[in-house]
Write a structure and sequence with these properties.
Elements: E1 11-17, H1 23-33, E2 39-43, H2 50-60, E3 76-80, E4 86-91, H3 98-103, H4 106-110, E5 115-119, E6 133-139, E7 145-151
Parallel strand pairs: 2-5, 2-6, 4-5
Antiparallel strand pairs: 1-7, 3-4, 6-7
Length: 153
């Protein structure tokens, strides 16, 4: 009898954004590469472009530009794609602890099956589901941005 063990090695993925004029292309490329991931957490320093990129991704999904805004004070904004599907955009920057995230019903959003884009997820890392796609945004010396993550597909 033969036994085979299969080990899945996550693939490193990346998208580079040359400049602000390249955002829409990069957003479409990003969406094509994340597969079925619905929980997307953006890790980046202040000013790296988390909100700007999330706005471009929402535009690529058909959310009208005028409806997209930073949820810094609201913590979560809900948008609708061109097909009417909800998209949730979180900003956890102002949270002092994970209890505040739970108080807004975080798991109801995360368990909804809808796309959830999260900024400042490091403030709630301990309660994020294992399947959360962790995307790191780095600012390059030429001011371009590179998004990197690992995925199983």
């Amino acid at each position: 009898m033969w036994w085979f063990f299969v080990t899945f090695v996550p693939m490193k993925r990346s998208v580079t954004i040359a400049n602000t004029g390249d955002l829409d292309r990069a957003a479409k490329e990003f969406l094509s590469k994340i597969g079925g991931s619905t929980l997307v957490a953006f890790y980046a320093p202040m000013g790296a472009g988390k909100t700007t990129f999330t706005t471009a991704v929402c535009r690529a999904l058909g959310v009208p530009q005028e409806e997209i805004s930073s949820p810094t004070f609201a913590i979560v904004n809900e948008y609708r794609t061109r097909s009417g599907e909800p998209v949730f955009h979180f900003d956890f920057y102002r949270l002092k602890n994970t209890a505040e995230a739970l108080d807004i019903g975080l798991y109801d959003y995360l368990d909804s099956g809808c796309l959830c884009f999260m900024e400042w997820p490091e403030n709630i890392d301990s309660i994020l589901p294992e399947e959360t796609l962790k995307v790191h945004i780095s600012v390059n010396p030429d001011s371009s941005r590179t998004l990197t993550w690992e995925s199983d597909s």
